[in-house]
Specification:
The protein has one domain. Helices cover 46% and strands 7% of the residues. Helix 4 packs across helix 5. The N and C termini lie far apart (71 Å). The model has no long low-confidence stretch (mean pLDDT 89).
């Protein structure tokens, strides 16, 4: 009994500090200094409606949009994950071959056309909102043709959504913000 009450007081004190005060302090600091990120990095359309988050990909399949990386989990946030197939997996080889065939067909390209790797392999989380500049370039003609917009205008818009990777990261394009900008700048009638 001698140690029970001091231990209980210590437990309750730490529970209040680590379970209440600390999370509240971090939340308040993030809301003050990083309000956009603290609210989920949400993307809104011209009417102010939430359409997406900059941080979570969605399954775009229409020719008028840039497509994100494939997702092993179907872009579901619960549970999100990779396929965990090894490089020697026959299933992975088949899935990648199917993706390549589908991409080449969707873009009306010959079988010998190289396809950017990030368009063939799913990301580790299955929710990756970024593609490589090569993957964006691969899709330019399709998006421009589907929207009836000159290729150079789409290329300029892609350049505006270019994100430098810094010292250790790779240069990428955020598909979510790019597609939102496409709908704002080049809306398609009847859609």
């Amino acid at each position: 009994m001698k140690w029970t009450f001091p231990n209980l007081r210590l437990f309750l004190s730490l529970a209040v500090i680590t379970g209440g005060i600390y999370p509240l302090a971090v939340t308040l600091i993030s809301l003050i200094f990083f309000p956009h990120q603290a609210h989920g990095s949400l993307i809104r359309n011209e009417r102010g409606e939430i359409i997406a988050s900059e941080l979570i990909a969605q399954p775009f399949t229409s020719a008028k949009y840039f497509w994100p990386r494939p997702s092993a989990g179907g872009y579901a946030t619960m549970p999100s994950a990779a396929s965990n197939l090894s490089w020697t997996s026959g299933k992975l080889v088949r899935v990648v071959a199917e993706r390549k065939t589908a991409l080449l067909k969707a873009h009306n390209l010959p079988e010998t056309t190289p396809v950017p790797e990030d368009m063939l392999f799913a990301s580790g989380s299955g929710l990756e909102p970024f593609i490589s500049p090569e993957a964006a370039e691969f899709q330019l003609n399709r998006v421009a043709a589907a929207r009836g917009v000159p290729l150079e205008k789409i290329r300029e818009l892609v350049a505006e959504h270019f994100v430098r990777g810094g010292i250790l990261g790779e240069n990428v394009i955020n598909v979510m913000t790019l597609n939102a900008a496409l709908d704002t700048l080049f809306p398609m009638s009847g859609m």
